[in-house]
Specification:
Length: 486
């Protein structure tokens, strides 16, 4: 090949490279120009959105086939009455215990059984059937190995704290006196609970009203000492499940399907968790145009869109004399973890801007003026029931829609936070609880359905620990971009 031909080829390749680079540059420039125009036409002020709070519902990375299940049976003598039939009453205890064995196999790769009272004792596989027989709760009181005189429930909690990547199931009557819930004894319970919840685990409490035919011991008397009671025909027992919500829900679902499908069944459930928020509504684009009042969706120039893929914005023109309340409603089932105590208070971070220029294509960043007022909208005080709605009433506080200047464009940004966990679980179990102070009076009324000692107090302790580990959680961000017409 001649030298001239080589130079021609080099010149041709060089020219093609320059042209390709030029085309790429023009394309990028065109794209940026379009993006800038689109951003300008969006006519929003400049702001930085709060980052969604990390919601850690499944903290455990251990695979299911590596998990173990540890089941603990309360061996205190008051549990014996669940094992003996009561004519005319439904006995769930034996069936539930039998089912737990199968459920445990579905949850983890291995299952280990223990009893607890004064101490934790392992139970051999071939001795599990004894748990549903009266003899399991009897022993020679003179024997140092006797395990039926106390119920140290903090011991299984300590075990769950030490090996948090497994699932723990505790079967107990939760019959605890004030002395077991105060001072040093309370600290023994609270310390492992804090550790469990801090690691992203949850605690499910399943209450089952079952037949009972035996003696309830250690009922606090008005004066010093305790009394016993033998006339109860029904009494609740509890299955406490500690672990990831996935496993807790599986245990709950299996028990419900096998025993508690009828509405009349006496069965209660609550989930104690430091993360009662199910998800951020923006991340899954669960906010829609139908969440705002229907009158707004029919307003002039209404448009709903997600800006920058994450922020839902309602655009519309509205008259200053608009009389209807503007509300936004979100489904509780989209926000609250099923069965949890929910949220007792929310807050809104409000930011309001206005511009004298109303046409989007003419608005520049410097045209926006930020309002100093932040007390703008009302929000429902609490949310717990899955059938409830979170309701936001816009411009219902110090900033009223009718008091804003007409002939302006407004941009209103709301960032909605779950501020404080709720206490729905306390209400769920309230009717099954009796306090130390009322225990003897309650017993003297000769009840056939006996309540659980200090159950409400126990639930309050669990909720208190969960609340300590709770962090305010961003559940939604949204914007309103509207013209206020005369």
């Amino acid at each position: 090949m001649s030298k001239q031909s080589k130079l021609f080829i080099i010149k041709y390749i060089f020219t093609k490279s320059i042209m390709r680079a030029l085309v790429t540059y023009i394309s990028v420039l065109f794209f940026l120009t379009i993006s800038i125009v689109e951003a300008k036409n969006d006519c929003s002020p400049e702001f930085e959105l709060a980052k969604p709070t990390q919601i850690n519902l499944e903290a455990d990375s251990t695979s299911d086939n590596e998990k173990s299940v540890f089941i603990y049976f309360d061996q205190s003598l008051s549990m014996q009455g669940y094992t003996m039939k009561q004519p005319g009453q439904e006995n769930y205890y034996k069936d539930v215990i039998d089912d737990l064995k199968q459920i445990a196999e579905n949850v983890g790769s291995k299952t280990f059984y223990h009893s607890f009272g004064k101490r934790i004792k392992p139970i051999k596989q071939n001795e599990i059937a004894q748990v549903t027989k009266p003899g399991f709760y009897e022993c020679d009181e003179a024997s140092a190995a006797c395990n039926n005189q106390e119920s140290k429930i903090h011991e299984p909690f300590k075990a769950a704290k030490d090996r948090p990547n497994n699932t723990y199931i505790i079967v107990t009557d939760l019959f605890l006196s004030n002395t077991q819930l105060e001072s040093t004894a309370r600290a023994q319970l609270v310390k492992p609970l804090k550790s469990i919840l801090k690691k992203g685990k949850s605690i499910g409490i399943i209450g089952v009203m079952s037949s009972f035919n035996g003696t309830i011991y250690d009922i606090p008397a008005r004066e010093d000492g305790t009394i016993s009671y033998t006339e109860a025909k029904k009494r609740p027992f509890y299955i406490i499940v500690i672990g990831d919500q996935k496993e807790i829900n599986q245990v709950k679902k299996n028990l419900e399907e096998q025993h508690f499908m009828d509405a009349g069944d006496q069965y209660k459930y609550s989930l104690i968790t430091s993360t009662p928020i199910l998800q951020n509504l923006n991340e899954n684009k669960l906010i829609t145009e139908n969440d705002i009042a229907s009158k707004i969706t029919k307003a002039e120039n209404f448009k709903f869109e997600y800006v920058n893929e994450t922020l839902p914005v309602y655009k519309f023109d509205i008259k200053k004399n608009y009389k209807k309340k503007i509300k936004i409603k979100f489904k509780g089932s989209d926000i609250i973890v099923p069965g949890s105590s929910g949220v007792s208070s929310f807050k809104i971070n409000n930011t309001l801007w206005s511009s004298k220029e109303t046409k989007c294509k003419k608005i520049d960043e410097e045209d926006w003026r930020k309002d100093k007022r932040v007390d703008i909208s009302k929000i429902s005080p609490k949310l717990s029931d899955q059938n409830e709605e979170l309701i936001i009433e816009l411009f219902a506080k110090k900033v009223k829609l009718g008091e804003l200047f007409w002939g302006r464009r407004y941009y209103y940004l709301m960032e909605i936070y779950a501020e404080t966990p709720g206490s729905a679980s306390e209400e769920t179990f309230k009717e099954w609880s009796v306090s130390d102070a009322d225990a003897q009076d309650f017993t003297e009324r000769n009840p056939t359905e006996f309540k659980t000692l200090n159950l409400t107090k126990i639930i309050k302790i669990l909720n208190s620990v969960a609340n300590d580990e709770f962090n305010p959680t961003l559940i939604a961000s949204l914007g309103l971009n509207f013209n206020l017409l005369k």
